[in-house]
Amino acid sequence: MSVLKSTVGWAADISERSSEVPVPSVAGQHRQTLLELILAAKARVGIIGLGYVGLPLACLFAEKGYPVLGIDSDEVKARALNRGRSYIEHIPDERIAALGQQHDFKASTDMEELRQADVIIICVPTPLTRHREPDLQFIEATGRALASVLRPGQIVILESSTYPGTTREVLKPLLEASGLRSGRDFFLAYSPEREDPGNASFGTSRIPKIVGGDCAAAREVATVLYDQIVAGAVPVSSPETAEFVKLSENIFRAVNIALVNELKVICMAMGVDVWEVIDAAATKPFGFMPFYPGPGLGGHCIPVDPFYLTWKAREFGINTKFIELAGEINAAMPEFVVAQLVRQLSEQQGRALRGARILLLGIAYKKNVDDLRESPALTIFEMLLKQGAEVTFHDPHIPLIKPTREHASLSGLKSTELTPETIAAADAVLIVTDHNQVDYDLVGRHARLIVDTRNAMGRAGISAAHVVKA
Question: Which of 59, 123, 267, 301 is catalytic?
Answer without folding.
Answer: 301
